Every structure is written in structure tokens, then in C-alpha cells.
Amino acid sequence: MSLGQSRSVVSLPTVENAVAGQLGPSARTPGQRIGRGIDYELFLDCVHCGLCTAACPTFLELGTEMDSPRGRIYLMRGVVDGRIPLDDQVRHHLALCLDCRACESACPSGVQYGRLIEPFRAELQEFGLGERWPRWLQALLFQVFPRRRWTWWSLYPVRFFQRVFGLDWWKPLAGMLPNTLRNMLAVLPPLAQRYYRPPAWSPPHGPRRARVAVFLGCVHHVLFPQVNEATVRLLQFQGCEVLVPQRQVCCGALHYHAGHLRAAQQLAQRNVEAFPLDVDAIIVNIAGCGSTLKDYGHVLAGTPCAEQGQAFAAKVRDVHEFLVSLDFYPPGFGLPIQATYHDACHLCHAQQIRQQPRQLLQQIQELKLVPLSESEVCCGAAGSYNLTQPEMAERLGRRKVEQILQTGAQAVFTANTGCLLQIRRYLHEQAPHIWVAHPVEALWVACNGHVPYRGIPVSVPD
Ligand code: SF4
Ligand code: SF4
Fold this sequence. Notes:
Layout: H1 13-23, H2 41-44, H3 57-62, H4 69-81, H5 88-95, H6 102-106, H7 114-126, H8 135-144, H9 148-154, H10 156-165, H11 179-187, E1 201-202, E2 210-214, H12 219-223, H13 225-237, E3 240-243, H14 253-257, H15 261-274, E4 281-284, H16 287-293, H17 296-299, H18 306-315, E5 316-318, H19 319-325, E6 338-341, H20 345-348, H21 355-361, E7 368-370, H22 385-388, H23 390-407, E8 411-413, H24 417-430, E9 435-437, H25 439-448
Parallel strand pairs: 2-3, 2-4, 4-5, 6-7, 6-8, 8-9
Antiparallel strand pairs: 1-3
Helix pairs in contact: 1-4, 13-25, 19-21, 23-24
The structure holds iron/sulfur cluster (2 copies).
One iron/sulfur cluster binds at residues 55-58, 69, 72, 97-103, 113.
């Protein structure tokens, strides 16, 4: 149904009154028309039952209807209908959404929330009504970060200061720095001093079981090169011939989620051209990138590359998903530690991958995996969210750390760049000894017996 056609109006006094009460009477006047890119039928899937609210991190923290999925769907639909003006208040409630998709997992009616908020944000950007960030931040997020080499060189001074003065070198200057810059510096892990350049081709160890191509990511590759190195080596160890296409680029997730659709499409097109399709799988170890790569059919819809986008997306596998399907060879070394696992939103909610990382970690001898309460609640990283909404990001980061500390774990594993940064930042304020790592790092340590992190024991089999 297109905008302007007649629509069924759901009369739901509870939600309407709650939202209207919080918005005030001025918000009930007709507003700006927006929403041409949204399939209006998707709004109608929401029966306003409210079962999603308890899963929504912002509702858990604030307890307000407009900061719940149901409230946001109501707001977006009201704006599209012209019943609610798109004022700063409405934009703020929508900007506070992490796009974590926990509401999709919780919704019994199958509401595709991502298909509503993402095109809605894209149109806000298109009409110049989106979030207004400083120019330098926009340049950093959308020009520098998507380029691995630019990111590497932009961090050159930070690498130097970390090496000379330590990880907290910036703290004496904190009062003089703008908030956003201070947040960026606080979240950075110890940076690798060398740039890891994976070989374009690596042979399998032993008989070949599969041929795969590995996606590296952009910021991820610069901040966590050891994760990509462990992934390539682990895949070789598991009998895979590994290709790393050298012309691959950023997946476009940052642009897509911020509503910059054209830029996301250009990046998607370059990846579709860079990756061969005569492989068994395109492997990705980053939850956020993985969900965007699997969505290329949709990202590229309406472009000349739409079909190639679908073919590409059909080949994409999260590394855990792939290793379990390959029948993982159990590692030969043990890790006698207690560990826990945090579900990255774009792995558990967007890709429905929950058991596979746990299954793999449980194959490590002597590693005791303990459950993490609220493991599926977002840690507050959410792409660039910790830069654009630092207050809520911090609340969620600290909430996550409380839960982790209660497990008594010596290690916490999670499979997303933002989660690794966010959890390490707040956890290490209280417990710097806890190992924060990607599951493939632990798996590779247990396969080769080499321990990259001080304090983590490794046991040698008899
Ligand atoms: S999104 Fe789903 S769970 Fe939430 S109110 Fe709508 S129908 Fe209910
Ligand atoms: S995507 Fe996450 S933050 Fe946004 S409404 Fe859904 S559960 Fe809440």
C-alpha cells in the first residue's frame, strides 16, 4: 500500500494515550509527510500487545512508552500518517533506538522492526532531518573508518602515545577534550603496532574440506587484527582453503544504519565485485557486518546489482555458524578458566545465531562456560551509538558489566567489534584482569596452545 491510499486505523487507546500524554497536545497537529520508502503494511503487523517492551534496552532503562518498540512504531506510523509532527522530541526518541532488533526476537507477531526504522532513518537523512553531528565526526565515521588504511594512519599518534605513556595517556588531558573525542579515546583497546596483512590465499592443513573467502571488516581489522588472524588460521586448521579478496571494502553497515543508503549501496556493490562466488562460503566474524552482508539483497534492491547482491548474501556465513556446520575438529589444548558469553545483538537477533558460539566454546577442554544474565540485552555499543548517544550507551555498558561481574568469569567472549570495545572499556575500570575476547581467539589458542594474554592459563593434554 502506498502513501495516500486508505489505511486501516487501529484503535488502541492505551498506546495512543501513553504516547500522546508524553508528547503533549502540540504533537497531535499534522506534521511532515515522510515514509515513502516504507512498506506501510509492515506497520499493520504490530498489534500493540507490548510483549516486546521488556526486551528493549531503552525501555528497560527509561521505562517510557516512547522509548519502547511499540511506542516507536506508533510514532513512526503517526509521522507517516501526518498525525504526529516530526519535531525534535520525536526524533530524539527514534534516535535513542539502538537498532538492536531485540524487539524482533520478542515479537510473537513477526514485526520486522528493522524494515521500519532503517528506511525511516534513511529518509530523515535524505530530507536533512536526521541527527546533526559535527562535521569532523561525520568525516571520521563515514570517510575515514570505512577505509582500513586511513583508519590505521589516523591512529598513528594514538599508537605512539600508547607505546610511550601507556593506555591512559589521554586522561590528564580529559578536561580539555570534547566529549565525543574523549569517548573515542576511552573506548580504544591497546593498539597493535603492526598492520596485519593476511595472505590472499592460504592452504588448508591436511585434506581440503572447504574453500572459503574471508571478510575482514574495516575498523575491526585495525583494532582487532588478532581476531582476523585467528579466523584465517583456525579455518586453515579446520581444513579450509582460505581466500582473502584484496579489493574488499567496508560492508556499509555504519552508513546503512545511519540512513546513508547510497553510500551503503556503493560499498555493497564493490564487495559484490570483489568476492568470488565459487566458494563454499563467505566467512564473517563480526556480527554487525555479518547481518548487513546477509542483507545485501535488500540493500541493493532496485539497483542494477540486485541479483548479484542476493547471490552474494546467500553465500555469507557467520564464522561460528560455518564451523559448526563443518563439523569442527575439537581443539587439542585446554583452557582451565571460567568464562561467559555475551550475545551480540546482530548475531542473536538479526541472524538468530545463539547456540553455535556456545557449542564451539564448550568443545574447549576444561573451559567452564557459565550463563550470563541478560546476555541478549544490548551492551550499548550499537555501531556509532556510543559516540552519538553517550549517556544511554554508558548506562547500558555499566548494566552489562554488572551482570558479567556477577558470573565470576575470568573471560567474557563476544563476537562483535563494538561489543568488544564497549565491554572492555567499562569492565576494565573495575576488573582489568578479565579477558575480553572474540570466541575465535579462544578457539585458536586452544588449537595451537599459544596464549596471547597474560594470566590466562593453558593446559597441555597428556
Ligand atoms: S512489535 Fe510485536 S510485540 Fe511489540 S507491540 Fe507490536 S506486535 Fe506486540
Ligand atoms: S531495536 Fe532495540 S532499542 Fe530499538 S526499539 Fe527494538 S529493542 Fe528497542
